[in-house]
């Protein structure tokens, strides 16, 4: 599929890829534009744009607040789809949507997928939609060249990893630890064995997120994963130092 091929091609040129995350409409779409420009200019390989939801269960307090503030400011699904179209047309890297299933369900599965395809979105991350419930939706997405990206956790058995791999496309998202996003993750022998199990379960690229915060964290993944995911750290940086701090931070990660 398109996303997998693009990432594997980019991976040949770098020790490890970077994927960043932002919540659409937080603090505003105009600031989102400035942040994405800095991310792309400083070498980000893939960007995950979150369509805000009131109860983002996989997200820690930083992203939760960003979701709630974006919704309070009036962000709509239609505005997010249009923004995604603008970004995908402006930059030559993959853009993904991340959201929760209630957003897709209320908008309409087929209508959402058609709009995402028209926008040039190449992948979807929906943490609360396992294949047991969303297999038909994942097939519909794949038929439209939109990769359903599934999440593996440290608690996943080898059998579960194999099952998820059978449904996934684009890449596998490996959660660095149990729990929600935002807290610092610790890397040790147990974590590296978990990544080795992930690698054995799939031929898709491996992306690692949840608590990746600095250059050392990214370096620790080289040779073990294909892509590091930076999420809460950049949102916190924008809150504390402003959007212009994002570019230098991204540049410092490799």
Summarize the structure.
This protein is of the alpha/beta class. Helix content is 50%, strand content 14%.
Kindly describe this structure.
The protein is 50% helix and 14% strand. The radius of gyration is 17 Å and the shape is globular. 47% of the residues are buried. It is built from twelve helices and nine strands. The chain has helices at residues 2-11, 29-41, 61-72, 77-90, 101-107, 109-119, 131-143, 158-167, 189-201, 215-221, 232-241, 246-251; strands at residues 17-23, 46-50, 95-98, 123-125, 147-149, 151-152, 172-175, 206-209, 227-230. The longest helix is centred in the N-terminal third of the chain and has 14 residues, at 77-90. By secondary structure, it is α/β, with parallel strands linked by helices. Helix 9 links the parallel strand 7 and strand 8. It has a nine-stranded parallel sheet. Mean pLDDT is 93; it is low at 178-185. It has a single domain (2-251), classed as TIM Barrel. It catalyses: (1S,2R)-1-C-(indol-3-yl)glycerol 3-phosphate + L-serine = D-glyceraldehyde 3-phosphate + L-tryptophan + H2O. It comes from Desulfoprunum benzoelyticum.
């Amino acid at each position: 599929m398109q996303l997998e091929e693009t990432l594997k091609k980019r991976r040949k040129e770098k020790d490890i890829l970077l994927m960043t995350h932002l919540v659409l409409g937080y603090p505003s779409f105009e600031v989102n534009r400035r942040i994405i420009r800095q991310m792309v200019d400083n070498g980000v390989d893939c960007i995950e744009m979150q369509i805000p939801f009131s109860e983002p269960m996989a997200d820690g307090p930083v992203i939760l607040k960003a979701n709630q503030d974006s919704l309070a400011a009036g962000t709509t699904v239609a505005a997010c789809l249009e923004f995604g179209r603008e970004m995908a047309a402006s930059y030559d890297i993959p853009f993904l949507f991340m959201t929760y299933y209630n957003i897709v369900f209320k908008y309409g599965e087929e209508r959402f997928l058609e709009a995402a395809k028209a926008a040039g979105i190449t992948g979807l991350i929906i943490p609360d939609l396992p294949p047991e419930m969303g297999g038909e939706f994942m097939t519909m997405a794949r038929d439209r060249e939109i990769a359903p990206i599934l999440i593996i956790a440290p608690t996943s058995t080898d059998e579960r990893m194999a099952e998820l791999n059978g449904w996934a496309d684009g890449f596998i998202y490996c959660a660095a630890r149990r729990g929600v996003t935002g807290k610092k993750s610790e890397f040790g022998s147990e974590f590296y064995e978990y990544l080795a199990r992930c690698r054995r379960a799939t031929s898709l690229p491996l992306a690692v997120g949840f608590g990746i915060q600095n250059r050392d964290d990214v370096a620790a993944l080289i040779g073990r994963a294909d892509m590091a995911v930076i999420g809460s750290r950049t949102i916190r940086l924008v809150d504390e130092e402003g959007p212009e701090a994002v570019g230098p931070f991204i540049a410092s990660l490799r």
